[in-house]
Amino acid sequence: MNSEYIKIIANNKKARHNYLIESEYEAGIMLVGSEVKSIREGRVSFQDAYADIKNGEIFLRQLHISPYKYAYYTNHESLRTRKLLLHRYEIKKLLSKIRERGYSLIPLKIYFKNNKIKVSLGLGKGKKLYDKRQSIKQKDMKRDLDRERKKQS
User: I want to staple 10 with a disulfide (CB 3.0 to 4.6 A). Which of 29, 44, 66, 153 is the partner?
Assistant: First the structure.
């Protein structure tokens, strides 16, 4: 039996609103001990987080992991750049897509998978304002339909 334990720690709610996500990739992340403890407490923010590729490696930038309150001198910097772990062929595929106009790598969520911290990256294009309005309109229509169904049953 190959059962996977997945516990979502944080979601980037703005990512799907601001970007049209075409594909998702799962990556490991290199962290220090105090970062892991802070993540276990759920003290993570995706405010302006993004991923970029430099010298054949992927780095996660602007991901805010709050300092661990019980660490003393071994605490981490909250906005430091963190290296992501992906296979080389995946990095090459992502690099070729990012070179195309308008594509970005956006972190979608952080989660535990079998006691290892993983990051889900989305490859997507930025939405225009009218696309965002259309998404909001569809979401509102769906919510109204669900309310009507609930009233009828």
Answer: 44
Residues pairing with 111 in the sheet = 8, 118
Q: Is 12 strand, coil or helix?
A: coil
DSSP assigned state of 125: E
| Domains (range + CATH), the chain | 7-126 (2.40.280.10)
CA 48/CA 107 separation, integer angstroms: 10
| Contact assessment for residue 134 and residue 78, using Cβ atoms and an 8 Å cutoff | no
- Ramachandran quadrant class, 115 (left: phi over 0; alpha: psi -120 to 50; beta: rest): left
Q: How far apart are CA 142 and CA 47, in angstroms?
A: 27
pTM: 0.75
Give the Å distances, CA to CA, from 21 to 36, 78, 120, 137, 152. Answer: 27, 27, 12, 18, 35
